[in-house]
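To the team - adenosine-5'-diphosphate complex, inputs and output below.
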Amino acid sequence: MGMDTIGVRVAGISKRYTHRVKGEIYAAREVELDVKPGEFLTLLGPSGCGKTTTLRVIAGFEHPDAGRVYFGDEDVTGKAANQRNIGFVFQNYALFPHLSIFENVAYGLRVRGQAGGEIAKAVGDVLALVGLAGYEQQFSAQLSGGEQQRVALARAIVIRPRVLLFDEPLSNLDAKLRIQMRQEIRALQRRLAITTIYVTHDQEEAMAVSDRIAVMNQGSVVQEGSALDLYHRPATDFVAKFIGRVNSIPGRVAAIGADGPAIAALGTTLVARTLPAGLATGSAVQLMIRPEAVAIVAPDTPGALAATVVSSSFLGEKTEVQLRCAGEGLHAVRYNAGPAEPLAEGATVAVCLPANALTVLPPADREAP
Amino acid sequence: MSAAATAPRAPGAHRDPLVAGAAFALWALLALFVVYPLAMLLARVLTDQGHFSLAGLAAVLTDRHQIRAFWNSLLLGTLVGLVGTVLGFVFAFTAARGRLPPWMLGAMDASVLLPLVSPPFTTAIAMIFSFGPRGLITYDLLGLKGVTVYGLSSTLFSEVITYFPIAYLTLRPILAGIDSNIEGMALSLGASRWRVFRTVTLPLSIPGLANAFLLLFAASLADFATPLILAGNQFPVLPTQAFLQITGMFDLRGGAALSFVLLVPALIVFLLQRYWVSRRFYVTVTGKGAGTAPFDSVSPGVRNLLLAFCLLVALAIAYFYVLLLYASLVVALGANHALTLQHYKVIFTDGVKAIRDTLIIAGLAMPLGGLYGVLLGYLVTKKEFLGRRSMELVSMINYALPGTIVGIAYLIAFNDPPIELTGTALIIVACYIFRYGPTGIRATVALLSQIDKSLEEASQGLGAGSGTTFRRITLPLILPAFFAGLGVVFIRSMTAISATIFLVSVSWTLITVKILENITELSLGPAAAFSVLVCVIVFVVIGLIGRALRYFRAPGAASVTSMLGG
Ligand SMILES: Nc1ncnc2c1ncn2[C@@H]1O[C@H](COP(=O)(O)OP(=O)(O)O)[C@@H](O)[C@H]1O
Ligand SMILES: [Mg+2]
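Output:
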């Protein structure tokens, strides 16, 4: 749309609330974010981890107790929401019930004192863009959830905001519509190249729409990176378990070799990827491996471990297998290219845990804050 | 404006001078017109020549006649509460479960609205016309001689007709809001319709029934007009005793003491209703309701029975009003049925001052009371200031107390310097604003609490300042509450008497007081003509306000029509 795209920087913002039960809590604690111009960043985390609070501080709806917010080079911390030129999409859409769809979308333009002709054109264009041409005279109560969502989106982008902010915009839609809308949001954001910060607790949604994801837990950002990074190289137990499913195997660092650390686990020694800083030979660790990386192989494969099949469920495209290996439960997923022999319960199989799929993390109890 | 001030309820937000000023002004008004009169009333009851004394109260509490009035008031309130709640429930149940065509529902609403917005004495006059010594029914139809219409049963009957609509309006949304799937579920488990009603519908309605009972009890306890006409000497009640003590015996202190005795049960009922019963609803009334029942929750036979009963009650109400109209158009009902406009001539000559005064007072109280309601309601829900919570409670006091108490309190407080208002229109206008404006407050608070905070934030996020947001988003959404406030203040200004009977003077009088004078002088024709006139004015104004509401109310904004009943 030919406007200057700017980045957003969140520098050490903190926000405290007095909670009725828990007392004084940090809803956001020294949050640092650096969103590049045109980038789509998602704040991902469980409910109550401080995503909304962080987003509302960025929008200017809340004033942080500490820290600053920059739009480009400009420090907007002291500015009210109506001075920041943002587009905000609320979880409940917050459509004005007493205004028509046209007037809802036109609202921000009227506030800016634009001429009637310009407004009519801009509103018409943006409604066409979100696929709602012809809905101008309807009222929000007459619209379906998906349509309301599109109006909220149109209302946010028509003012050509510097930053687009979404707070769980899809959580009130059914599963099918959620997938469709997230694709539309992503496509629209690409097209308009507006710097976007998106909040969700749904990891799949986050992976589908974002350039980059910041995972939050208990008010802090615990890891940032692409979906690929976070999935394959989680920095903490929390991230590994929050994004996707994972097997967690207790172990101990046996040696540090040239091709990676050797970890004593499952009654044998497994070679893993890099060792996190601060761990040395003898340290207790956790080995993480995704179920789809647990390979069920021929019994004579070198380095394979013996395991017993506890249960096996055929789910169409894949089969979920629950194994027991050296006293530890192990979850494996086999993708079914064609009809394969089902694994009998109680059968003994061989499994292989490839080194490049094994992540070493500090033991879980070191995580607790 | 700084960021902190627009951030909603940010800790340490700067005080908005406009908010602070408005809050201060409202507190000053509440102190003057709510707290001060009540304090003066208590002082008058509990002191004697500057010293604390219970002598005045003791005089009342040892007088056998007055003790009887106290128990009579409680008895009447309980009976009206019970009978009215049952009647209201039957109406509400028929409306919610009877699968009635829309026109029938409309007729039901209309027949119920009529008593709610009528001037006082309306049913009382009709009762006398029908069941009095020369009554159309007792004397002409049944040929009974020497019957007396005065006493408990006719007061009870008249009050039930007048107040059961409150129970209907309270119970109907509750019955409509019960998820019909719950009843369907019970039915599918093999329960009979009667069993479903007994084990599901009725238990779920209990908080609503309790609420309706308390509201009716309070209304009856406070009712002054009906017992004044119908209760007679044999059945004294507190409000009329207080009135007679002051106007008949010129004993202001005794009247104040009697009204204090009335205050205790009134306060208990108010607190019970507001803080206990209304928090125990199982059904959240969303306004949408479950709509029409998808299965036959009543059998055709029962449905017809219910319908017939409601029709009978509606006909009785209609009969009363037709009778009233007829009485205003004949020379003397019961004696000479020649048609005449004489009574209207009388009210437009002798009574024209009362009409003019009432319209001026109502015309002043309406906009002021409407504004007061919206402003106070907006401030207490949306702004932070000192004493925000207590402000709402204090603003409800004059609304919750029986009019007799408020009237006597005003009479005591504003009769002498420093603030001498007796004899002015202002004292009556102020009484109406602070007594009936709270309807607008409650409507505003109810509407605002339905409006999500994110609506105002969405407006801010789109670049609007707090002024624009208020004007373009908040104000249009609370406009229905403003109109509800206007309507109620106007209607009550036209029809109220219990408080203002103490406040009228030679310079300023009211139609309702004139009606009472006419009844006491036994000129029932002009009384009927006055009542008809008030009904007509009230209906015209309700029509206009309904029109304005429809014009301003956008689809999606909450409905407040039922609040007109409060
Ligand atoms: N206005 C508030 N007052 C008190 N506590 C709040 C307020 N807003 C949020 N919190 C608390 O702050 C924490 C983070 O909330 P939030 O940012 O809404 O989380 P999320 O959006 O990730 O679910 C929660 O524990 C929540 O209870
Ligand atoms: Mg949230």
